[in-house]
């Protein structure tokens, strides 16, 4: 979608898109297609980092253009892209950059990415970043990786199973992409889906329930 003009948008627009928690509309408003690459160390026994790529929908991307195109040339130069990167970086910090990593069902703490890069191509905003586990994460037992927005405002979608990859996965490990069935997920979590759950201003785990996950099961 090409823009033919600009209009004033409050400076908090980009932040609001990511952080809105309005309980009256518990469904996504921003959409991104994603890729996740799990990077292992040289001997293939430890997770070194997670590399993320998110490609945002045309509507949100054009909103970013209107907000950050300071010189009105209908594109984002390096300085404007840096401002976009800085804004998203700060906005997502308290949400762990939408990452969820577990080892045998226990949450794995992740370091904040050193930086976040934004690019704009084919009329779409692209965000890239890489993060590392705070402590060594061994490939043992069941390790899960997912990406979700706890406010349920942004939908991060892995269109193809191949968009969740692990290079040089050891033969002792199996890889499965899990796509929860919404009806089954709701049925299994019915007891927790109360009015208080949906009105929690800090966000809910509803999108976590529905999130696509990469599951690695390793022996030994």
Mean pLDDT: 82
Principal-axes geometry comes out as elongated
Let me know the number of strands: 12
Biggest beta sheet summary:
7 strands, mixed
Write a structural description:
The chain has helices at residues 13-19, 58-68, 78-92, 182-188, 195-198, 206-210, and strands at residues 30-40, 46-56, 99-103, 106-107, 116-121, 124-131, 137-138, 141-147, 154-157, 164-166, 173-178, 213-218. It has 220 residues and is α+β, with helices and mostly antiparallel strands. The protein has one domain. The strands form two sheets. Strands 1, 2, 5, 6, 7, 9 and 10 form a seven-stranded mixed β-sheet that branches. It has a five-stranded antiparallel β-sheet with strand order 4-3-8-12-11, with no helix packed on it. It is elongated. The termini are far apart. Mean pLDDT is 82; it is low at 1-13 and 19-25.
Features:
five-stranded antiparallel β-sheet; 22% helix; single chain; 220 residues; elongated; alpha+beta; seven-stranded mixed β-sheet
In short:
This protein is α+β, with helices and mostly antiparallel strands. It has six helices and twelve strands.
Please render the helix and strand layout as text.
Blueprint: H1 13-19, E1 30-40, E2 46-56, H2 58-68, H3 78-92, E3 99-103, E4 106-107, E5 116-121, E6 124-131, E7 137-138, E8 141-147, E9 154-157, E10 164-166, E11 173-178, H4 182-188, H5 195-198, H6 206-210, E12 213-218
Parallel strand pairs: 1-9, 1-10
Antiparallel strand pairs: 1-2, 2-6, 2-7, 3-4, 3-8, 5-6, 8-12, 11-12
Helix pairs in contact: 1-3
